[in-house]
Amino acid sequence: MQLRIDHAQFSDAPIIAQMVGELLREIMAMVGTGSFGFRQEETETRARSWMTNGMYSVLLTRDTAQPEPLALLALYESNALYSEGTTARFQNSMFASRIDHKGSGLPCSWRQKELGD
Description:
The protein has three helices and four strands. By secondary structure, the protein is of the alpha+beta class. The two termini are 23 Å apart.
């Protein structure tokens, strides 16, 4: 597997939204409750809007042999006194690989990154 990391483009909003939905369904299945609301179209719109205005940046991991992203990392701008201003942050739950690619050497899930499994 030959991996590369790409900055997501506005045209990637549908796949970003799809991957967010997959992640949310995985989390809800693990905790046994429907704690998140998800609407594909609204998530696509937010992703495009936030990437357009610079509030959000998404990195997509791809295998050079296939165009479909294997994992994503969503970053957002934050402010912190300890960093003397603006810093990049990522939500732990937004660093995940797709279920089809767990066990392939990519981070396995939000839970494994969070708990160190």
